[in-house]
Each structure stands twice: as C-alpha cells, then as structure tokens.
Design brief:
Blueprint (H helix, E strand, L loop, with lengths): L2 H21 L4 H18 L5 H35 L1 H12 L3 H19 L4 H12 L4 H10 L8 H15 L3 H9 L16 H17 L2 H13 L5 H5 L2 H21 L5 H18 L40 H19 L6 H4 L6 E4 H5 L12 E4 L5 H15 L4 H33 L11 H13 L3 H16 L2 H19 L3 H14 L5 H10 L6 H27 L1 H4 L4 H26 L4
Helix pairs in contact: 1-2, 1-20, 1-25, 2-19, 3-6, 3-18, 3-19, 3-24, 4-15, 5-6, 5-8, 5-11, 5-13, 5-14, 6-7, 6-24, 7-11, 7-24, 7-25, 8-22, 10-13, 10-23, 10-25, 11-13, 13-14, 15-18, 19-24, 20-21, 20-22, 21-22, 21-23, 21-25, 22-23, 23-25, 25-27
C-alpha cells in the first residue's frame, strides 16, 4: 500500500471528528463513538492489529478517562464548595475593585493565572482552575471555556515544570545515533564521556528555541482572547471592542513572555511558564490597580444573563450569584486557590521531596497487560501497554483536599457542603459518556503499530504522507504535525514523544538544522491543545457545558491555525536563511500574516467607528 493511501486511511478517524463534531455540531457523546468505531475497524482490518491489542488499548483508554473524570470531579467540587461558602461572590467583588472590565479580568485570570497553573501542573489543569473561576465571576460558561482553551498554547511547552520538553522531547530523541552525532558535531558533550541530552545542554538549547518561537507567537494571544470574547459573546458581537484594549493586551503578553524567555535561557525548561505567569501576574495586577494602559470609558461587560444564547449556558446554574457572608474577607476567599497553587508547586518541584511519596509503588496502581495475559515481552503478541495510575499525585486529589479544607476554613454547614458534592457528582457523570469513547479512540490510534501488515502506527503513517508531499516546505508544516499529535493524544508531551525523532529525521533529509524542526514540533504540539477534543470535553464538563464541544473548537480553530502558521513561517525563515538569505519565502509569509492581521484589525475598528453610536 502506498504511503499516500495509508496516510489518507490514517486520517479517516480525524475526518470523522471534524465532520460530525465541528461541522455538523454533534455533541462529543455522539461523534466520538463513531470515531472510535472507525479507528478500531482500521486497526483490525487494515493495519491487522491483533484483537487483543485493540482491546487492551481500549481498556487502557478507559483507565485514562477515569483519571480525567477524577480531575474533573475535583475541580467541580472545589468550584461548588466556593460557591456554597460565598467565596466566589467575594472574589468577584475583589476583581471588580481591580477593574470591572471583563476584558481586563479575562487577561488576568485566563492568560496570567492560567499560565502560572499550567507551569506548575500542566495536563489541562488551568481549565480546571481558571475556567470555573471565570464562570464564578459571571462569565458565560462558553466564553470561559473558549478563553481557557485559547491560552492553552504559549505556556504549554513548559507546563508541569517542563514535562513536554524534559519527558516528551527527551524520550522522543533519546537513543538516536543521528541525534547524538549531530549534537556532538555542534559542540555539545556530556561530563564522563557518554552523551546525554540533558547534561550536554542540547535539550536546553532546543528548549530556548521553543521559548523564542512561543515568545513571538504568544505576544498576540491575550489580544486573541479578548477579541474572540467580544466578537462571539459580547452584546454587540464586535471584534473592535476587544481591539480597543490592544495596548493593555500586548503589555500583559510581554509581561509574561519576556520573563518566560529569560527563564528559558538562564534556568532551562522547568520554570518558564511558572515564573513567567507569576511575574506577569504581579506586574499586570499592580499596573491595573494604578490605571496603567487601562481601557477608557464604560467598562465592557456581557449582556444581561437573560439575553445569553442557550448554547453559552451550562445545565447546572453555574452563574447563580450568591451574596458572600459579611465576615468573609478577600484573603480568606482567595485562600483555597492559593492552597491549590501551593500544593501543585510543592508536589511537583523535586527539591520538596513530596512527589516520591505520592508516586511510590505503594501509592501507585500498575497493570502490566502483557504480564497479566501471560505474554512474554519479546513475543509478537505483546501489546507493550502498561496502565499506571497515581491517585495521590493527580490534581483531582489536591482539589478534593482543598475542598475539605475550605469546608473548615470557611465555616460551612454540612447541608451546603453536601449540596456541593451532589451537584459535582451529577456534573461529572454527564462528562463521562464523551470521555469513555474519546480516550479509548486516542489509545487505539496511538497503539496501532505492530500489526500483521507491518505498517507504521497511524500517526506516523499520516506524518510520513505529509512529509513526502511537503519536501523543502516541511518547516511550514512541522508545527501542524505537532498540533495534530496533541489534537489526537490530548498532550503536548505525547505528541513530542511520538514525533520528535521523526521531525529530526525530516530536518536532516531536507538539509536544515534538525533541532529547529524539533522546536517547531514542540511549539505546534502546544498549539494543538487549543483544539484537543478530550481537553475541550474536560474543560466543558467542569462548568456543565457538555455537548457543545464542536462549537468550542470552531472558536479556537482559527487561533490554532495562527499559532501553527506564524512559528512555521519564522522557522522556515531561520532554517533556510543560510542557503537563501533572510529574505526568503518564510520571511515573506511571516510578514504577510502580520500585515493581514493588522489590516483585519484596522478594518474592524473602522467598521465599528462608522456604525451609529460607534
């Protein structure tokens, strides 16, 4: 079978997702079973993967789905606990004191606080923390989820203390003779003789390239967040109302991305998002209180709730506002979120020595499916799949612990706390239908290698087909392949593990610096989180918005295209500058994208100005 035909077949499950979820707007609970059926039939009938392996991959997917549901439940429980205690209403008044303008609030919470949480925990945690906080402040749930998904781009490559680089890229490149040879020829060497990606500094070099590309593309992300919000969720459906805060949005972007870039250069891949988000939060909140670059005129707000579209609203009354007790001060109201951030950081920083206790073998559930089935690891029938769950290390456990502490700290009564648990359980169950098909589909797709036909697993087969068509233009498409990996797997880390060596090899074949191609892969993998199905399902479930996943992806897809295209153009300009000079196709395309965005922004501002009362 030709590479092109194999690539087309591998793309079928994704086409099913695109057509039914995004175009026809089916809920994920109906679209994802079709996608699962498609990938299972392809694996069994075309790739000739053994039925046992497809079954094990499916069960492994169900276990992963259960861990996601546990995180979702914890996040919902914390939100409902804070609602019942009155803390959400008090936090809302606190943000009004900084600025009642929703455009400012979404930048502070989604972009800056979300980046900090991504840096500390990763794996979709910002959606579980920042999105419900936005909803509690009075944002329509759909607007909150879209905003939370858009910022799942710039900070993601350095999320969870650099896991996508330190685990994803490292494992993807480790053991490759070509990588070792290239790195050593570039002057990288390890103490003691044997080459190591980390101690040689080669991985840190790639990480800085990733940070540089993100710094360029991420400068516009806060502006994208506010313009998408005002265009699709504002009373006037206007891009222009978001563009009016462009100075503040760019300032907020640079307040995060410049420290982020500096940390990547001086400290490596562990802390750019965490420190960048924290520094940016301090700078922007202080500046906002002082009125620096704040929007003039009437504060922008959503229309009254009764005018909201039914598509924007969850099913469990997330926006009911309660009056907080008079005794509740702002510090006490914020304390649960401070505890969440502190616990996430403490359990993930190696120096704290807490992580080994939480992931100890006695606290870990491990299922080696081959061993359970009595199959030798080197047997042709071996699946190579092991399921591992560390309940105490999952963010869901932190959310539950903080919820229990909130019950005590906020002096809640038992009836109110019981209501929080009951509502949270009901919301979590609604999300389960979509996830029990979404994640198994992903796992069958990823584990489709080793079949009787000898084909590469589906993601690699698809990437091979794209690479054969792209040729020298590969740097433009490299981020899209990384984004595709994250779209399917729901993880920048998994995308990097899956494609890093492949991307390195394509870079060498076309005669350009392969480390830059790997950097483009990592950036694209981060961008793919903005459209990843099971991340969207999880974020939606936290605020009771299950069934609207296609609508959310329709809003975030243009941001993904921008975020994959702009670094791709810049990467092309960089890798071909030695042969073609800096004035090459990449530079021209990069300038074209920026000019097109500027022209569009100017046209929207003019349209608004020409309207009556504009």
């Amino acid at each position: 079978m030709s590479d092109a035909l194999l690539a087309c077949l591998a793309f079928l499950p994704i086409i099913v997702v695109g057509v039914f979820l995004v175009v026809l707007r089916w809920p994920a609970s109906r679209a994802m079973p079709l996608s699962y059926a498609t990938v299972a039939v392809l694996a069994l009938a075309v790739w000739k993967v053994p039925l046992l392996k497809v079954g094990v991959a499916t069960v492994h997917g169900l276990i992963v789905a259960a861990t996601l549901l546990y995180i979702i439940f914890g996040a919902i429980l914390l939100l409902n606990t804070l609602k019942e205690s009155g803390a959400v209403a008090r936090i809302r008044r606190g943000f009004t004191d900084i600025s009642p303008d929703r455009r400012v609030q979404v930048i502070v919470i989604a972009w800056l606080f979300g980046s900090f949480i991504e840096g500390s925990a990763g794996f979709g945690t910002p959606a579980a923390v920042a999105v419900p906080l936005l909803v509690g402040l009075g944002f329509p749930p759909m607007a909150a989820v879209v905003s939370g998904m858009i910022i799942q781009s710039t900070p993601v490559s350095f999320g969870a203390l650099g896991t996508p680089i330190l685990v994803g890229v490292k494992n993807g490149l480790d053991g490759s003779a070509a990588v070792t040879e290239f790195a050593q020829s570039a002057g990288f060497s390890s103490p003691g003789g044997s080459f190591d990606l980390v101690s040689s500094g080669f991985l840190a070099s790639i990480a800085f390239k990733v940070a540089l590309l993100h710094c360029v593309a991420g400068t516009l992300i806060p502006l994208f967040v506010v313009t998408v919000m005002t265009r699709y969720f504002g009373p006037n459906r206007s891009f222009a109302e978001g563009l009016r805060v462009w100075k503040f949005a760019i300032f907020a972007a640079l307040s995060m991305t410049l420290p982020y870039l500096a940390v990547a250069y001086f400290l490596g891949p562990e802390f750019p998002s965490l420190i960048g988000g924290l520094v940016g939060l301090g700078i922007v909140v202080t500046s906002a209180r002082a009125g620096f670059l704040m929007p003039r005129g009437e504060p922008w707000d959503f229309a009254p709730r009764e005018q909201w579209s039914s598509d924007w609203i969850g099913f469990s009354g997330e926006n009911d506002a309660e009056d907080s007790p008079a005794s509740m001060n702002l510090a006490l109201a914020w304390l649960p979120y401070v505890l969440v951030a502190a616990f996430l950081v403490a359990t993930r920083i190696p120096e704290a020595q807490i992580k080994p206790l939480l992931v100890h073998q006695n606290a870990t559930i491990t299922i080696d499916w081959d061993q359970l089935s009595g199959i030798a690891p080197d047997s042709a029938d071996a699946t190579g799949i092991t399921s591992k769950v560390t309940p105490l290390y999952l963010p869901g456990s932190i959310f539950i612990v903080v919820s229990l502490l909130t019950f005590i700290l906020h002096g809640m009564n038992g009836a109110a706390y019981a209501t929080a648990w009951k509502n949270s359980s009901r919301t979590m169950l609604r999300a389960s239908v979509a996830l029990v098909f979404t994640v198994p589909m992903v796992q069958v797709f990823l584990n489709s290698g080793g079949g009787a036909e000898g084909f590469e697993r589906m993601p690699i087969a698809l990437a091979n087909g794209v690479a054969a068509l792209a040729g020298d233009a590969w740097p433009l498409l490299s981020p899209f392949v990384g984004g595709f990996g994250a779209f399917v797997a729901g993880s920048n880390t998994v995308s990097n593990m899956m494609f890093s060596e492949f991307q390195f090899g394509v870079g060498q074949r076309i005669g350009v610096a392969p480390d830059w191609i790997v950097a483009l892969q990592a950036v694209g993998g981060a961008a793919g989180n903005t459209i990843c199905v099971h991340n969207v399902v999880a974020a939606s479930a936290v605020v009771g918005l299950v069934g609207r996943e296609g609508l959310i992806i329709r809003r975030t897809l243009p941001v993904f295209c921008y975020y994959a295209l702009l670094p791709g153009c810049l990467g092309y300009a960089i890798v071909w500058s030695g042969q073609s000079g800096w004035l090459n196709a990449g530079t021209i395309l990069f300038a074209g994208v920026i000019i097109a965005l500027a022209v569009f922004a100017n046209s929207q501002r003019r349209v608004r100005a020409e309207e009556p009362g504009g």
